[in-house]
Each structure stands twice: as C-alpha cells, then as structure tokens.
Amino acid sequence: MEDLPKIISVDDHVIEPPNVWQDRLPQKYKEVGPHIERHPVKSMTFIGGKFAYEMGEEGEGPLADWWVFEDKAIPHTRLAAAVGVPREQVTVTPITYEDMRPGCYDQKARLEDMDLNWTEAQMCFPTMPRFCGQTFTEMNDRELGLLCVQAYNDWMVDEWCAGTNGRLIPLMIIPLWDAELAAAEVRRMAARGVTATCFSEIPPFLGLPSIHSGYWDPFFAACDETGVVVNMHIGSSSKMPSTSEDAPPAVGSTMTFTNCMMSMVDFLMSGVLPKFPNLRLAYAEGQLGWIPYILERADKVWEANRGWGGVGDLVPNPPSTYYAQQIYACFFDDQHGLTPDALDKIGVNNILFETDYPHSDSTWPHTKETAWKLMGHLPPATIRRLVRGNAIDLYRLDLAV
Hints:
Number of helices: 13
Helix content: 25-40%
Low-confidence stretches: none
Number of domains: 1
CATH topology: TIM Barrel
Distance between the termini: 21 Å
CATH architecture: Alpha-Beta Barrel
CATH class: Alpha Beta
Number of strands: 12
CATH superfamily: Metal-dependent hydrolases
Radius of gyration: 21 Å
Strand order of the largest sheet: 8-9-10-11-12
Strand content: 15-25%
C-alpha cells in the first residue's frame, strides 16, 4: 500500500472530562452547573429515533456516570464511546469513565490514538452539550446557560486543543436561544483563533426559528465577517429520521443523511447564501452519494417553479451555484459518492474526510485502509485534497497541504 497523505478529520467527538464546567463556572453556579455523579440506570432505550433513559435507585440497574445540572441528568452511553470495543458489544448500554477508552476524554491518549490511525489532525464535536450545544438551550437559567457555553468554548481552546501544534482543531458552540448572543460568541472566539462553530441542521426541530425567518442573520453575518465555518452534524436537531415509533435504530442509522439533505435544500432555497457570500457550511457525517440528485432536482425546481415557488427574488442563480461556492460535504465510507460521475457533480473541492472517533460508525483504527479502499482509484492530487487539502483551506489550518 502506498503512503496515504496524513488524514485531517473534520468530524470526531470528545467526551468532556468531569472538570470542564466545575473549573470555570462562578462559585454560585458550581452546585447547579454540570458535574458528574454516579448512579444506576433503570432503563435506557433507543427506538424510533429517540434516546430515552431513567435514573434508578441503588441496585436498580448498572452504574453510569451522569452529567447532573439544574433538575436534569444525562448518562454516558457505550454508543458515544465505542472505539476499542467489539462491534457486537456496542449496545445501548450505560457506562462510566472507567469503561471508556482514555482517548475519548484525555488529550494525550487521543493524540496517541490518532497516531495509531494515520491521523494528523481532528476537529471534535461536543457530547454532553450535544452536537450543537442544544443541551444549554434547555436550561432554566439563561445566565447559567450562557456561562456554560462560554466555559465549554474556553476549555476547548485552553485545554483540549492547547499544546497540540494544531493537531486538535477547536470547534465552538453558541447560545442558540439568542442570535445576537450567538454572533457575539462567534466574534469572541474568532478573536481567539477559532475558525469553526456548530449549528443545528434544522433549528425548528429544536423549537427555534427557521433559517427562512431572518432571525439568524446576525449569527450568519458574524460568520460571514470572521470566516468562521458553520458545521452541522447529523442529529444536531435532536431528531433522528425514523419511519415509525417502533422502528429499530438501524432504520434511522441508514437514513441519517436525510437530515443533511433537508437542511441543504433549506439553505439553497432560503436566500441566506447569496445574502452572505462568505458564509461556508459543512455537513458532518452526511456522506456524499445523494448530493448529485438533490442538486439536479433543486435546479429544476428553481427553474420550473420560480413564479410560485417563493425563491424567485431570494435566489438569483441556480441553487447548485451556491452549493459549489459555499457548501462542503463530509464522508467516512461512501463508495458511490466517489465514482467518477458522482465525484464530478459533487466537486473535488467540496469534500471533507472524517474518522468519527469514538462513535460506533468510526473507521478507527483502520481508517487508512478504508481510505485506500474508497479512494485508491483516484489521482494522488485528488486524494490529497479529499483527506487533508480541502480541510486546510476551509478552516485556514496552519498545517502543510
């Protein structure tokens, strides 16, 4: 096997260590702010696209480490810390920190696991705050919620990514309940060198205004101004696709790309992209193969239905124009999306690579082999763009192309 260029992964995850908020919140908020407690789990299920759990009394179930804050509690689960565990043992099971591979939450161990996986750099989405920080929108105390967002972002820069020579790439969260506060946080963290933020793929699923409403314009304007990339992970709307309340998880896992697809069409038809031409979007874990058709369909709808489709004044050019200029797709295992015809339509410069460590879909520790299986037929220059070059350009990384 030839040497693959070292991987830069734009979709991985960090399980926050217990000290993140306790070290940073004011004294009056330490008790009510996020902290770890160990309790039994009475029940834990993932059915119909919904994750549900119940804390038990002593002896009522297996132990888990729980994030406890205000009147809420969130348990750790094996699905979020699956690396190093045989696939058949990756189940909807509560766990403690001792049950996790240390690379899930420890910086030094993470870098060692990256070395094992031919990975030079990673950008990590949050776990306890969920994929775009929506956990903190559910807090009763908005002041505490904002402090928790800021504490996470400061920890991301000052601890998780610090001292790694750019190998760990900071990714901020925002206070989703207030677009002006979100814009201020983007500017605060951009001044600290952060070039990426999380956002919800479909905000109305979180009870928030849609991107069509204009509500988010201050946030988009801040990203447009600072060059901060908007990253949307599948599930960042807290609603995974499913066909029924009793559908097994495999149904939703097969269809996860549909959230990305709906979100992308939203943006293509919203007028947001022409309004903010420096805005860049990246869809994490959405894969690639569906993109050629949806671009074809969007352009046909734009052309045929401009009189009544509600986009005539908002979208002056075919939607695919804005995709090519402003949208990036991320993949970890998609053969169809890398066929010559599909790749031509998706765009070699619009694709990013990921390893999804430490989730159950992760290709760790065999990502190099997976990458060669998927991309070995491509020219070396194309492979380099997909596995690292596009990420370096998009996120303005201080790493060799």
